[in-house]
């Protein structure tokens, strides 16, 4: 059977930037574009030229890509020609090989939002697309609110698509702008559009996730015959986000009926980079990676139950729908006070530590885990700290450095501008390679304001660790979580820290103490030790 080509269109740099709390710089957009290009997507929508300075700066110096760089804009305004519309001109001036124009296809939006006649809107669509094509560009028409428009007035919604196609649009993209259409309806309408004369090989789908069905809606449209799918990395997007390409791409490559009937620009080796790309995007945005994200999440292949772990050791496919390595992820066997030796050996094997069945160290490790969890530790969400505990029991924990003492001070004072501020400072004294090293740092964050005593400690601890400084400089702290265990004067603090590095690795460590700073410091030290071990430091 000849497989049909499915085209992947990424809109992270435009739709993704509409996510609440997300704002890319031009340099960050360029880095993300290069990652997308290496992954193998076919189109990269870089933004809306002229709409904001960042997008204009990006297009002024956009990276050269194999993927078709695309500028986004809207159809011309009524009452002027396409050649004299300044907004459309700014989009064309970006010089991209393709241009995607959004236009109304719901009659209610035409009359109420635009305030023009239905025929006038058809003329705006046709004239704008024809103008783009006349400039030698590939034209895409983004049919805004199409599914709602088709429900209200199918004949008019279809006439908008036909106007764009007859004007020369390469792609007609059905957009579920409000994100409220369900998968079965998306499939039904897509088939109706194809039956009405819009060929599937010129049809795309753009789904939003307001019902949690954006990926399912996209797959439904593809099954119905659409041959372009749009989405964003990690499902970024306005409101609840867009269809997530980090879920769509592996599903299309690994799952039937798509695997045997379709082909994309993403190959097996590129697919192995998906987890790293997903986590790098979160690092750029200073966001905590979603642990439960399909395929790429830290918990996507985590097996906590002892029964599951025992089966995984014998045959991984018993509880895994795909091999984690195909998407660059890894299997995790969490440790907790529910664990048995099957979990323990599987988790150790995952860390590259082979222990024979019946080894006397196994019950010692289990006893240590259970004793520590009684004290407030939680190793099911702090696998790196568990690995260090196990290595210590096995006599396989390298002695990279030893912290002799530390001191943290927090001062509340008035600054020179008369504003009340806090200032945190930390001193760490460590023994590294037989030498005594003292490091001092303040707690200033990226914005120049005090980020607190834990940040000061991290900066001081990571400032000078001698031969291992190169590994430490690649680390970043992604998240910091605090929970109070117990009540009253007997309560202790549990701190869990998520760390990441530039290779895309992610790991979690835990510390417990009546003192929140001390608990944090314990987790910080574990994070560094785990990183050094996995970097092969001697």
Automatic annotation (TrEMBL):
It comes from the Bacteria. Residues 6-272 form the Pyruvate carboxyltransferase domain. It catalyses: pyruvate + acetyl-CoA + H2O = (3R)-citramalate + CoA + H(+). This is Citramalate synthase. The lineage of its organism: Bacteria, Pseudomonadati, Pseudomonadota, Alphaproteobacteria, Rhodobacterales. Belongs to the alpha-IPM synthase/homocitrate synthase family. The keyword Plastid does not apply. CDD domains: DRE_TIM_LeuA3 (cd07941). One of its GO terms (molecular function) is 2-isopropylmalate synthase activity. Its EC number is 2.3.3.21. Keywords: Amino-acid biosynthesis, Branched-chain amino acid biosynthesis, Isoleucine biosynthesis, Transferase. Coiled coil: none annotated. Pathway: Amino-acid biosynthesis; L-isoleucine biosynthesis; 2-oxobutanoate from pyruvate: step 1/3. Transmembrane segments: none annotated. One of its GO terms (biological process) is isoleucine biosynthetic process. Pfam families: HCS_D2, HMGL-like, LeuA_dimer. The keyword Transmembrane helix does not apply. It comes from Paracoccus solventivorans.
